[in-house]
Every structure is written in structure tokens, then in C-alpha cells.
Amino acid sequence: MSESTEPACCASVLAAPLSEGDAEELARVFAALADPVRLRLLSLVAEAGEICSCDLEAPLGKAQPTVSHHTKVLAEVGLISGEKRGRWVWWRVVPERVALVRDALERRRVSA
Fold first, then answer.
1. Alpha-helical regions (H) of 1-112
2. Is residue 12 one of the residues assigned to a domain?
3. Model-level pTM?
4. Is 58 part of a structural domain of the chain?
């Protein structure tokens, strides 16, 4: 994710051909979301507002190293951000980033 105040991303997929950079960025995000564990993890974080890594193990049925791997992937594409507090990281969704990804699909939706 860029250093600007608003995360960089992407024109609508359905409006016009994407630039090569936008296509690469969206592909990274969609690849991160293509894993069912990460998709569920994102939904758990979003529903909680903020959640400790330690509280993700049981609902995901995964050990801490696996949870850590999946949170890292989601954080690398900017969908969640974490804050280390003591031994644990507390995660929250980055609403602006999720909105940009959603807009890339919704902004110019084709009607049936």
C-alpha cells in the first residue's frame, strides 16, 4: 500500500480496460481473498471491529502460526492493519481499502 493518506487502487473493472498497474494491484487483493481461511478471517475482523490474533484461532480452527500467516497476507494487501500490544497483535479492517476494492467491482455494475 502506498504512503498516501488514501490507499491507491483501482478503476472499475467493468467501466474500461484497467491499466496494467491497477490490474496487478487488484489481482493481488483478489488472490489474498481467494483463500477461504482469509475470507473468513476478514469477515471475523470486520464483524468484531477490532480483534486480537489470539481470538482468531478458535473460530478459524487454526493454530497461531497459521493465523499469523493469513493475517500477514491480508495486511500486505492493505485490507487489515494490526497494532502490537504486548504479546499479541490486534487487527482491524481498513475501511477505505475495502471500499476501494468494492468500488472496483460495483461502481459501474452492468445490469442484466
1. 20-33, 36-48, 57-60, 64-76, 95-106
2. no
3. 0.79
4. yes
70 vs 47: CA distance, rounded Å: 17
Map residue 78 onto helix, strand or coil. Answer: coil
Which domain, by its residues, includes 68? Answer: 20-106
Residue 30 CA to residue 41 CA, distance in Å, equals: 14
End-to-end CA distance of the chain: 34
pLDDT digits (tens, 9 = 90+) for 50-80: 999 999 999 999 999 999 999 999 999 999 9
What phi, psi does 50 have (nearest 5°)?
Answer: -155, 135
Give the separation between CA 22 and CA 4, rounded to whole angstroms. Answer: 16
Number of compact structural domains in the chain: 1
Grid cell, residue 14, equals 467493468
**Is residue 11 situated within a structural domain?**
no
Q: Is residue 7 part of a domain?
A: no
